[in-house]
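Q: Structure tokens for this one, please.
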Amino acid sequence: MGTVHARSLDPLPMQGPELGVQADDLDLGEPEHEEKQEVLENKDVVVQHVHIDGLGRTKEDILTYEIAEVFRAKNLIDVMKKSHEARQRLLRLGIFRNVEVVIDTAEGVDALPNGLDVTFEVKELRRMTGSYNTMVGNNEGSMVLGLKLPNVFGRAEKLTFQFSYGTKETSYGLSFFKPQPGHFERNFAINLYKVTGQFPWSSLRETDRGVSTEFSFPIWRTNHTLKWEGVWRELGCLARTASFAVREESGHSLKSSLSHAMVIDTRNSTILPRKGALLKINQELAGYTGGDVSFLKEDFEIQFNKTLFWDSVLSTSLWGGMLLPLGDKPSCIADRFYLGGPTSVRGFSMYSIGPQSEGDYLGGEAYWAGGLHLYTPLPFRPGRGGFGDLFRTHFFLNAGNLCNLNYGEGPRAHLSKLAECIRWSYGAGIVLRLGNIARLELNYCIPMGVQSGDRICDGVQFGAGIRFL
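A: Here is the predicted structure, written as tokens:
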């Protein structure tokens, strides 16, 4: 009896591609044996049975949604494609270590001459898994220890404890995640956490103890997240030399906020894209669900990427945001925007643009930043087709401004103030892509439009992170 084995479909990594050349970087030739494939495509078949072998604590009802499309296949090629797609959906649940597919002719008294049986051979993850890794943030690094209980109740729920110790931040948290059966993109999460961060540019130390709940769901091509967060914040001075303005902010506050985020992302990579666009909009309203902090906060991020000649990429980006205090109290230093550094307006020190007091940067209630970038292969293409393709030459022009607004004035006055004292910079350097995890930049920067109180980094500047202007 003939059997088609689909074991050549290796599992996709759950956390993005490994360090190496991306799929979009490869030039795949045309498939061979087109005549043979056409014969297979024209042969009508019926999928009579789908089996899942190897289940332990997983409930079968949640898997029914993931494999339903296999029954709609009309020919052998379609069966293989839909079986592969179902396999990826099963792996995406994060409850299986491995999933293999076996396609065989149907057996039994009800077997049809053109009937097929599809079997998914699964291997579940352990009840408890541990992890140790390093994480790169925006110009900071962390050591992360994690403990995970996957598939807690048998329907892809996940309970996670994570401890992170970094150069500027230490945190630990407990989270519970539950997807909607059949719609993994719709999911619910609850988080308990404590975060202690140091912000030397403001001589500030902040400790947050909080709880949050969030619901994520897609609408058409957009992804949305609704979130409620309640956090007890404790602010203190990082040094005895902290300015009076920072000392004034010290103390305790309770923030309760509702927020909404919308994302449209068509980029082929989040770290160093070659094509596609990104639109991200965030709104946060604090004070209407309790707490002693009240404000309305809006910010956005736009990015466009276009592949040009000679394997070069042109990228443009624009960030912006406004913070409107509600009530009589001024905004808190922990809620304001910050700008400057190797991940935003290059050529300036980390978050060293805008209002400051005695050398401590206080942030601002409105900002914008824009960037124009040209990424090209290294000269003479050393290491082409291998490690050398992880490097790109980088030419950039950045600009931006951060300030406080008088909300008694009109929009024209606000735009006028944001257009004053624009900081900008230009330069060139080298970019290294670390898989889909992070990227490193080493640039020679020439800052321009420097204002009194700004700290600059004239010359070589190193940056590491996951989000760059």
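A few notes: Residues 46-124 form a domain with the Ubiquitin-like (UB roll) fold (CATH 3.10.20.310). The chain has two domains: 46-124, 129-465.
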